[in-house]
Amino acid sequence: MEKKGLKIVWDTKAKEALKEIFTFIAGDNMNEAEKVIKSILDSTRALAFYPDIHPIDRFKINNDGSYKAYEIYSYRISYKVQTEFIYILRLRHTSRNPFIY
What we know:
Elements: E1 7-10, H1 12-26, H2 30-46, E2 67-72, E3 75-81, E4 85-93
Parallel strand pairs: 1-4
Antiparallel strand pairs: 2-3, 3-4
Helix pairs in contact: 1-2
């Protein structure tokens, strides 16, 4: 029997950031853009089965422990773990100044 993971839901702004990342990288190298986006998407899909694998998001104010974050290819992904869902909230390059939310 196959294990069913949590449902992954992308915030609209996070989806838009993903598209912008692809467009930016593809301007120089389409293969690299596809590789980076695939890695990001694969990493978020893995959260469905391992939601607590990453540390608590240190930029989230009053974090109750359900907000997590990690980095891949110099991009920081912030997400929220709930009972049935993982919400992908933010996606930004690590060179950008972080902001508290």
